[in-house]
Amino acid sequence: MTARFDAIGLVVSDMAASVTFYRRLGFAFSEGAERQPHAEADLPGGIRLMLDTEESVRSFTPGWEPPAGGGRHSLALLCDTPAEVDAFYEELTGAGCHGERKPWDAPWGQRYAVVNDPDGHGVDLFAPLGPVVTLPSSARRAGLAVPGE
């Protein structure tokens, strides 16, 4: 028996606001998804982003309440350039999305910014500041130095 990663699920309080937010980020939710208790968008590589309303979750887990606080997870979106991180952040915050962290040059070599979806789920926007060098995972596990780290 083998399990494989298939989807990311988020519980949302307002499906219409959440679908609108994620459509702005380029997620292709079907027409009418904003009026459903469950919505899905296909992602590259066959993964799905699933949104469920709080009421939907309560239908199979009576008494469920959203956790207090936040910041335990985020989605990360790779942008093509550092300038695109800045432009996307300005577009989203200009449309009323909450900006958690304005774009900055992170010490790990990326232009980085954080916005929140309508329920406070973090969405990281990032792009490499320079050429991308990727070592095989076996080299990382062996502790070989990664350029720029």
**CA-to-CA gap between the ends?**
38 Å
The largest β sheet comes out as:
4 strands, mixed
- Please state the CA-atom Rg, rounded to the nearest Å: 18 Å
As a percent range, the share of strand residues is 25-35%
Would you tell me the overall average pLDDT?
A: 86
Backbone structural class? alpha/beta
What is the strand tally? 7
What is the number of helical segments per DSSP (H or I, 4+ residues)? 4
Q: Can you list the strand order of the major beta sheet?
A: 4-7-6-5
Residue share in helices?
10-25%
Shape: globular
Topology (SSEs and partners):
Layout: E1 7-12, H1 15-24, E2 38-42, E3 48-53, H2 54-60, E4 74-78, H3 82-94, E5 98-106, E6 110-116, E7 122-128, H4 137-141
Parallel strand pairs: 1-3, 4-7
Antiparallel strand pairs: 2-3, 5-6, 6-7
